[in-house]
Specification:
The protein is mostly helical and 88 residues long. 67% of the residues lie in helices and 0% in strands. Helix 5 crosses helix 6. The protein is globular. The N and C termini lie far apart (35 Å).
């Protein structure tokens, strides 16, 4: 979280601050949901998982392309990265 985040989008800043407080300020270390953490569309991630890719790899590919919801051409871009990684 940065000052520019605060200035540009106060609502998002407050939501992020609340998320961090709930997940990191408490002592019981709850399991972090990486899909929620990075603001990704759960159905998009699930579509790739159903193709046999791990959630971790899907999230990594979507984040590298700055894609939150993989539909159409975005889905093709993510798939290209996943297939390239799996063939190496």
């Amino acid at each position: 979280m940065t000052r520019s985040h605060y200035i540009k989008d106060r609502k998002s800043f407050d939501e992020t601050a609340q998320y961090w407080a709930e997940n990191y300020a408490c002592g019981d270390n709850p399991k972090i949901d990486p899909i929620e953490l990075y603001g990704l569309d759960r159905e998009s991630v699930s579509d790739f998982e159903n193709m046999g890719f791990t959630q971790e790899k899907v999230i990594e590919a979507m984040r590298s392309l700055n894609i939150r919801n993989a539909q159409g051409r975005e889905q093709e871009k993510v798939l290209e990265i996943l297939l390239k990684e799996s063939s190496s």
